[in-house]
Amino acid sequence: MESYLYGLLGGVMIGTAAILLMMSIGRIAGISGLFFDSLKSPRSNVWALLFVAGLILGTGMVQMFSSTPTPTLSASLPLIITGGLVVGFGVKLGHGCTSGHGICGIGRLSTRSIVATATFMIFAILTVFVRLHLL
Question: Among residues 45, 23, 22, 21, which one has the least CA distance to residue 34?
Answer without folding.
Answer: 45
